[in-house]
Amino acid sequence: MNVMIKKNIATNELGFVFNPATGDSFSTNLTAATIIRLMKEGKSLNDIKRGLLDIYEADKTTIEKDLDEFVNTLKENNLLTA
Amino acid sequence: MNEEKRPLVIAVTGLNAIDSPGPGVAVVRAIREGITMPVRIIGLAYENLEPGIYMDSICDKTYQISYPAAGAEVLYNIIKGIHEKEHIDVIIPNFDAELYNFIAIAPRLKELGINSFLPDYEMFDARDKQNLYAFGQKHNLFVPEDKIIHSIDSLAMINEEYGYPIVVKGKYYEAVVAYTLEQAQKAFYKISAKWGLPIIVQQFINGTEINIAALGDGEGNAISIIPMRKMYITDKGKAWAGITLDDEAYLELARKFIAVTKWRGGFELEIMKTANNELYIMEINPRFPAWIYLSAGAGQNQPASLVKMAMGEKVEPFTTYDVGKLFIRYAWDMIVDVSKFQQFSAFGQL
To the nearest 10°, the Cα dihedral for B118, B120, B121, B126? Predict the structure, then answer.
């Protein structure tokens, strides 16, 4: 499944996220910044999960749960395409 | 002999850069940046403690003028007197309350050689707080329902219709969100004592507050539109920090307003964006907002463009601006010699 960040959302490698349509800005940690970057590159959620499993010493269930929660947070903050 | 070119002389009101600021200082700052030829700024102040009178690099000379209640004729005579000394090219009034008089005398000022770029009475009245709901109905725009009241007894009846909270507004300035009848009554007394009657009671709309500064050419075209979201709001509801936004819906709304009114000059739309993305027009201010310097910072210098249009120059509509540009207001204590204060207080000019 692909989750798309809205095209106009501005981000940087330090985890700053700016929504120019609403003026909202957010600071994320580096893991979240990496996830957002991968989403912007068009990676699927499965690709991102696999990438996170390679990087972090956590089990698949925990990674999936955390990623789902993060996607929901992005959705709630109006950062994803419909 | 080469005679040095005379500067463009621009008179500006609204120098009260206080916690509920007038736009004058921001307008002057934008003009000084955006007009390439030399300019001479004539400040027009009502009170002797308006900070813009004393700020460096804002006004070259400031004169005291009459309060709007003195009427258009008194104002005309004062401006004429100042013009005889200063040879004003353009005048930019920046207060809602003074605009009626300035619109009235604009043709006579023009005869003297003083240009302005103001809406006419029809445009001005259409967006008046007291006519705003009807204006919205006529042009299919979202505007909260309101009631114009002259007596405090009317508040109790409004409760039955709208429920609480409600917004209690003065005819020119100030708005209070009231959550109970007692709060509404207190607001009624406070605002009517300051700004007179009537009071406007408006349905409360929940959402995100967006402000749009725009400039119309008087022929239905938008020269500039800058939408901004307040990021920090003072207890008086004024923006202390804000950021420019990118959303076509805001631009479209401002274009529609300009097209239907053929608005001439600067104005500000105060919008509430609801959770359903409806854009409610809460208020339309018939002049530049105090945060107008952000328009220059974002690449669309509205005050400088207005000066050019007032001087008869054709200005092409701006097509882009910087999104995510912030303004952050600050307080700054000036040290002013009492002689300057004395000079302005005693002689009405500095």
Answer: -90
